[in-house]
Amino acid sequence: MRTTHAPGSVMARNARARVRGRRRRWFAEVSWKYVVAAVVVVYAAFPLVYVLSASLAAGGTLTGSTSLFRSVSAENYQALDATRFWQWAGNSLVVATATAIGSVLMGAAAAYAFSRFRFSGRRTGLTTLLIIQMFPQMLAFVAIFLLLLSLGEVIPVLGLNSKLALIAVYLGGALGSNTLLMYGFFNSVPRELDEAAKIDGASHSQIYWTIILRLVTPILAVVGLLSFISTFGEFILARVILTSESNWTLAVGMYGWVSDQLNANWGLFAAGAVLAALPVLMLFLFLQKYIVGGLTAGSVKG
Amino acid sequence: MSTQQSFAAAVAGDSPPPPRRARESHARSWNGLGVGFLAKLGLMAVINALGLAAVWSAFVNGAWVLLGAMVVLLVLADWIYFTRRHVPLKYLFPGLTFLAVFQLFTIGYTGYVALTNYGTGHNVSQEQAVDALLSQNEKKVPDSPSFPLTIVRQGDALGFAVVQGGAAKVGAADQPLELAADATVVDSVVTAVPGWEVVPKGQVLSDAVLADEVLALRVPLTDEAQDGSIRTGDATIGAVYRSVLTYDATAQTMTNTETGVVYRATDEGRFVADDGTALPVGWKVFVGLENFGTAFTDDTYSGPLVKIVLWTFVFALASVVVSFFFGLVLALLYNDPRVRGRAVLRTLFILPYAFPAFLSALLWRGMLNANPDYGIVNQLFFFGARIEWLDDPTLAKISLVMVNLWLSYPYWFLVCTGALQSLPDDVQEAARIDGAGPWRTFRSITLPLLLVSTAPLLIASFAFNFNNFTLIYMLTGGGPRFTDTSATLGHTDILISMVYQISGVSGGRADYGLASALSLIIFVVIGVISALMFRRTRQLEEVN
């Protein structure tokens, strides 16, 4: 394909020939791809357009919203104020942000240790983490529930129905899922930098906080973001741990709105879904380059 | 366990100790380090304060295991952050602590609970079960003296103050009656007790909720449940109540003194009489592999279990294959420099992936509603036909895979696009020169190379979908229900949602033992999948 090594005149001739060939083949090989693309875009975007339409429909049910944008009103959005939506959104935000920050701090510290120090048990530790990350934490939700049940009798803030306990549980999974992702990135920072700093008299903690962390900021952002998004959508642990309605996260609360066939409030749900998804959607689309890199490096969306 | 090994190994250390220097170590030094050291000192002070508070609380509550664990963690933390050696541990300790408590311990605990009958009716130790039985079966002692009684309150806790044999006594539900020498007694009725607030009788009579609380209140006479308690029927006079059951600790029997029936403690953790009747409160006992037996042989569970295991595999496999295939086709089509606006197309293609998954699942639940007046899919694409997308066993399964396709094809589109772009051009060119057509090139060159680089992700995705609780629970909730079993399980339940139903953590009858046993089955499956993956990718050997 590449003709960069060829002499200029040959290159020009090749290019002209290719342009002619391209035009001839364009209709046969390319034009239909736009048609397919249009179909796929409709498939991908239809539910999202639909939820926007339903959120703007007047009246609380899906009746009348089976045709798109028949009516446009802010009724559903205003109705959210009478629910706990904003409280749940706040809870989700607090839990996801705290988990993201904690995961980044602990994962980065562990990655630094594995990348920069040579200690016995290092290989075993890395291998163990690799194996642990295969077992999602939520598989043990029964045991987590029972653990918090007895922990709560002694330390109420770490018992059931506490957001702090939920964050602590999420942080238990932080090392397994993030360390290896960060470890590779830490290794790509040249060791000469630390050695130079060490000769200048910097301690290991100064090297970590002032040199390494600044150089690995992109991976910190990716891990923080992925952790935020997956915590934001986590359901089973939040459902099991947070028992009172005022502590629910969006995932738990909004499930309640529509899980009951008879009392499902779809208008409210649609408005809430648009508001809840918008920040995540924006984050994802603007930072897709970074997120995609992190995703394909090993983790799957949770 | 292996982390503990690595932990111990890391603690032991293999590097030679640093040469002794005259000056104090960084870890304890005041000189020159300034802000960093002060920050560490402050942080450690806070951690120690919180830790000691937790240790004290564990001591007061008699939670010895927790106390031990907390002391160990606290001592370790102090040692690690104030020694100059074992620098890596300083960075690993916080993460390892959380990992050990909330992941490794819980996995081990799952194994333990799986061997017990922990669940509804078997929630507590035998001692607590005996106390509960004794206090639940109390009756007024026929010749009980009556005491003038005053309702008192300490914060939210209600209590009784009585005059017994001329002496004032006060107590609450979790605080046995004890002498209150400094109480004020007027006409043999307590009118004030220091530390308690007297609740006026009028308030009790006018407040129905409060009145119910008072009538239900039981103030034990002593620490022993057998000794009975004080209760009241009218909020003014108290009487002694004593259990109709008596417990004989050496013979392990409960005897009903009214009927004379003797209940014996059994291996199943219950008191059972000779005629087979059992007392309602049981206790937790070790049952060995019984839960696994129940899962595979009990009529209620074994039939559904087989179907659910099959469906779990089918669902995970179908989800991965279908969405990988669709993503791959899209990647092949649009990894074509001749198509313009690929950046825009890519953004539009991955929209479903950017939408939070739980919202998507709920949204599809609404869109697939069978009633065409509500469900837009039936209304718009099936001309208003009433197709039961989520209520017919087969259609519900197809719907799940299709919705999962919508959710996850963007991931495979992104992965395959990346993999295609990183394939070496020369191999494909060589194939073309050898006369291979596009299809042949794809079959023999592109696809095999692509599968090599995406295999680990495919296996990971299979493992993820194997436990895709959120999608199943949000879209169908496991329904439609099986009609041939009394268990609340359905045609689209997967193993993890079956565990959720049986565990009863969200209400209903709880069987933690059986639920844990089923979780262990999932652990085994995931373990096998991981082993396959590691063998396939040699990832373990690459760690360095």
Write a brief caption for the model.
Chain B: It is found in: Cell membrane. By secondary structure, chain A is an all-alpha fold. Chain A contains 14 helices and no strands.
Which terms would index this structure?
heterodimer; A: 302 residues; mainly alpha; MetI-like fold; 14 helices; disordered C terminus; B: 544 residues; alpha+beta; nine-stranded antiparallel sheet; four-stranded antiparallel sheet; 15 strands; 54% helix; membrane (chain A)
Task: Write up this protein.
Chain B: It is a multi-pass membrane protein. Chain B: It is found in: Cell membrane. Chain B: One of its GO terms (cellular component) is maltose transport complex. Chain B: Belongs to the binding-protein-dependent transport system permease family. MalFG subfamily. The complex is a heterodimer of chains A (about 300) and B (about 550). Chain A is mainly alpha-helical and about 300 residues long. Chain A has a single domain, classed as MetI-like fold (Orthogonal Bundle), CATH 1.10.3720.10. Helices cover about 75% and strands about 0% of the residues of chain A. Chain A has 14 helices and no strands. The radius of gyration of chain A is 26 Å and the shape is flat. The C terminus of chain A is likely disordered. The N terminus of chain B is likely disordered. In chain B, helix 3 runs antiparallel to helix 4 and helix 9 packs antiparallel against helix 16. Chain B is elongated, with a radius of gyration of 33 Å. In chain B, the strands form three sheets. In chain B, strands 1, 2, 3, 4, 5, 8, 9, 10 and 11 form a nine-stranded antiparallel sheet that branches. In chain B, strands 12-13-14-15 form a four-stranded antiparallel sheet, covered by helices on one side. In chain B, strands 6-7 form a two-stranded antiparallel sheet. Classes of the chains: A mainly alpha (about 300), B alpha+beta (about 550). At the A-B interface, helix 1, helix 3, helix 4, helix 5 and helix 6 of A face helix 1, helix 2, helix 4, helix 9 and helix 10 of B.
